[in-house]
Amino acid sequence: MALPELNQTATQARLSSLSQPEGGCLAGARHAALSRVQTTGLPGRRDEYWKYTQPDTLVQAVAPEASVFHHDEEPMFGGFDRLKIVFVDGVFDESASDDLELEGVRIDRISDISNQDIHWAKDLYGVLEARGQSPVARPLAALNTAFAREGVAIHVTGKPSKPINLIYMHKSEKSDVMLHHVIRVDPGASATILENGPAASRFNKCTEIDIADGASLHLICAQGRDHERRAATHMFARLGKETTFKSFTLTVNGVLTRNETVVELLGDNAVAHVSGACVGDGDFHHDDTVFVTHDAVNCESRQVFKKVLRNGATGVFQGKILVKNKAQKTDGYQISQALMLDDDSQFLAKPELEIYADDVVCSHGSTSGAIDENALFYLRSRGIPNDAATDLLTLAFLGEAVDEIEDQEIATDIVERLENWLIRRR
Amino acid sequence: MLNINNLHVQLEEEDKQILKGVNLTVEPGKVHAIMGPNGSGKSTLSYVLSGKGGYEVTEGSATLDGQDLLEQEAEERAAAGLFLAFQYPVEIPGVGNMTFLRTAVNAQRKARGEDELSAAEFLKEVRAQAKSLKIDAEMLKRPVNVGFSGGEKKRNEILQMAMLQPKMCILDETDSGLDVDAMKLVAEGVNALRSENRGFLVITHYQRLLDHIKPDVVHIMANGRIVKTGGPELALEVENNGYADILAEVE
Ligand SMILES: Nc1ncnc2c1ncn2[C@@H]1O[C@H](COP(=O)(O)OP(=O)(O)OP(=O)(O)O)[C@@H](O)[C@H]1O
Ligand SMILES: [Mg+2]
């Protein structure tokens, strides 16, 4: 099918602004990804999948500038023992990073992989992304596969004693960054990966995750506090038998965020929880687009997304649960909710279920609303001032998403940060 | 201490007059009861006094210890010592009962310029109070009123009252939904708070509660007004004969 001319022009403009890394073992994957982009074209305003989010600034050849936000809040995860891997405007910062040696895990830079022929990474890079192109195209992810030069390959072989923390610093107003990560968790192994920081003025991140039988992976990501930054992220996860995958994303501010998550439950008894909490105001636009496919027996999936919007902010949720015909005993749950702190904000949601198996429990719900006046009055009648009562109810609203975080310390820390965000807006 | 003078209230949304000139004074140390047919305006009075939105005061006044209540925000009235035990306590998912109680106690202390209670002090106090109301520790951990039975919600109201130590307590049908034993517990909770500088306004439909909480004064409210005031015997009369005679008499 021929692309609409507009898309084609935009796609060509973007492609001609980029150059692919040359040679190495990922070259084939990169070339294949490039032809995927050329076939589908980059997202345009007319694309159904981009109905609620304007892709223009994510696609255009030159990224809009975004000022670097300075604040005095403690860096995220600062109090935790972790292995730090630091990228500054997308460039690996060796001196700020820890030694990449840690028992139970092997970490390589994508830029090194190319020359080393590491089999598992080569077998994963671009593979899940390519699978994730149907039934809906995700051209920004293919673009990433084709052009990203940096990122990490994390091979979890055991149970590393501490989490791996990818830190994305934003220092240049003109930074336009792509990072591509591949993560493989071996049978029975488990790890926690933390990510934080705005990364760049425009950030395109693609993460491919392969979780082998009996393995588990926890991901907690905080996307920084920079108001003007833009991000399009993709996460593709493939789950084997008896696996657990949990991902939580915190988004505070940011002018444009599109987080796409694609999960395939391919082994029986797998569990996938994908959750997110976001708070934003003004020109904040936040889009969670999730596609969960059940293709094995007795799997559980949960999608929990909560958005607090004020002063004209926009929240988007597109979430789908696809249950294939052999996926009996599927337990699928999806909830997306927005809390509007004023009348100017909007929430656009498209929850979908598509079920081909008969022995399935699936539920989905999507709501948007204001603070419950009765609850607010009840709290105030006990002497809790209006602001504090509103914050208490707002945090309670976010609670179901934050509760998805297993580590209590991290959850508490995140609640505090959310509370501070609210307090700064009183 | 509580002075309500010719209070007229209508709904903000529609032109509907609900309170049509309520006059009522509760002195410190006294227990006043209000009885009256369904829809006569008892809960509306309690809401208006405690600062709920949606009502418009068109005439009259209400003061607590000489301070104009109607000018104050709900939280200011609470800090000034006013407490309403709700007829229908509100469920608040996601807010722990304990967090709620501690936030409320400390917010009021702060508003009054007192030191906040430490976590340990608070815990000790709340445990003692909960024990005497037979509220178990598990209920304290749960979200506010969520999944509580009708009677548990009412006991939770009294727990809040005991923790907040208000000056002026309004109890709106706290007895409804309580079993016989729970009613005794609640009454004991209330009686334990009775003191010479604390006033009570107890809204109820039944003499039962007033057997346990002996009122000094009983008012009958009908159609937005206090139509009759008397001693405890008035409640007995209602219990025996209903409102028909009283209403006919005042017509
Ligand atoms: N927000 C509202 N909207 C419409 N009508 C209202 C509202 N609040 C109160 N009313 C009406 O005002 C009248 C008084 O209500 P209120 O709840 O004060 O009565 P009550 O004396 O407490 O009754 P009950 O004994 O049944 O609790 C009723 O007719 C009620 O329907
Ligand atoms: Mg009532």
TrEMBL record, chain A:
Signal peptide: none annotated. Residues 172-397 form the SUF system FeS cluster assembly SufBD core domain. InterPro entries: Fe-S_cluster_assembly_SufBD, SUF_FeS_clus_asmbl_SufBD_core, SUF_FeS_clus_asmbl_SufBD_sf, SUF_FeS_clus_asmbl_SufD, SufBD_N. GO terms for biological process: iron-sulfur cluster assembly. Residues 24-157 form the SUF system FeS cluster assembly SufBD N-terminal domain. Belongs to the iron-sulfur cluster assembly SufBD family. This is Fe-S cluster assembly protein SufD. The lineage of its organism: Bacteria, Pseudomonadati, Pseudomonadota, Alphaproteobacteria, Rhodobacterales. The gene is sufD.
TrEMBL record, chain B:
Belongs to the ABC transporter superfamily. Ycf16 family. This is Fe-S cluster assembly ATPase SufC. Coiled coil: none annotated. Keywords: ATP-binding, Nucleotide-binding. It comes from Parasedimentitalea huanghaiensis. Residues 2-248 form the ABC transporter domain. It holds the Pfam family ABC_tran. One of its GO terms (molecular function) is ATP hydrolysis activity. InterPro entries: AAA+_ATPase, ABC_transporter-like_ATP-bd, ABC_transporter-like_CS, FeS-cluster_ATPase_SufC, P-loop_NTPase. It comes from the Bacteria.
